[in-house]
Every structure is written in C-alpha cells, then in structure tokens.
Amino acid sequence: MHRIIDRIVELFKWPVAIFLLASLPALFSSLDYFSFANLRYMALFGGFLFFFVSRSMMDSSVRTSMEVLAHELTHAFFALLTFHKVKGLKINADDSGGSMCFEGDGNWLIIIAPYFFPLFGFIAMLVITVYQWFAPMNILIFIVMGYIIGYHVDTVCSQIHEKQTDLPKVGYGFCAVFLLPANLWMLGWMLAFNSRGWGGISVFNSLIWQLDKKFFSYVLNLIGL
Q: How are the residues of the chain apportioned to helix, strand and coil, as percentages rounded to the nearest 5?
C-alpha cells in the first residue's frame, strides 16, 4: 500500500509547490482579515514573546534535544500518514541529530515535513479541542498557542542551513519554492484556530482560495487573457 501512496505523493510534489508559491500573495493578504486587536491575540502574542524570553534562559542541550525529538517525531508522523511502518527512532546522545527508520523508500513529504509542519502545534490543537469538551476557553489557552507558534518559528529557522542533510534529498530548488508558503499556510492555520477553532481553519482555507481566484483573475486580465 505504501508504494502506491508514495507514487501518488511524488506526482504531486511540484504541482503542490507551484500552487503554494502562486498562493503567496493570498497568504500575505490574508493577514488583513485577522482581527488581531482582541484579547485572544494579545494573549497569543504574549505567549509568542514569552517563548523567546524563556528560550534565552533554557539550557542549550535541552533545547537541542527537544528540537531533534520534534524533528524525528514529525518524520515518523508523516511516515505513518503515508502508510509506512515505523521501525525505530533514535536520538544521538550528543544531541548532534537523530534518525528514524521506516519500511519502504519513502517520499518527499516524509523528508520535508519537519521544516514546515508544526507537530507540537497540531497536538496542542487536539488537546485544546478535548479540553473544550469539559471547560470553556480561557486566556491560558491562547498564551500556550502563542508559545507553540514561537517554538515552531524558531525550530524551523534553526533547522534550515547548508549542513542539513534532508534538504538536498528533495532539492534546494524545491525547498526554495515550497517552504516559505507552506510555513505561512501552517501559521495561518494556527492563527485561525486561535480565532475560531477548527472552523476557523476551514474559513481560512476558503479565504485563501477566494484570494487566489481574485489574484489569478487579476493576472489573466493584466496579460490580456
């Protein structure tokens, strides 16, 4: 089964990247549609800033270990999503990196996943959803979301460098096209969740689609088509 999934995923590699690149104007424009001047986002920005304050006080080895663990878990998560059996996960004792073994050859999505997908953010959104079944939302939830967004931004930025072994596997050209819009889309998801939960993510995706259509129509009119 995973071989079939891998082939399908590989077929969509460049179409997805090109679509995301074309969606950059919409992703930037979507910020105008968020109502940031409210308590939810004030708390979120507070959590975001608190992450970077706490980061400066955190032991470097602990911070690195967390980044490596999150990195390998994200590889494993996408391996499972694409029907690969995960055989093992290893974190080097000196925090120099780690590895994740799975059945089959894999695909580009497994390789690139830690560089755009906020696994801890996704887990937090699931936990918050369960929490809402038993208690109302409170300001602490929004602070936590901001903290996790800060963690995601910091982790992605620290992982993208010339010594990273994953990036050449998918190609630097592909990374240049894919990573920025993919990260903006994920950040949009988390901001939208902070506004209206999972329904907010659905609204955000619809907004991007509408802005894309408006932008594409503008470009076609501009070139006379």
A: 75, 5, 20
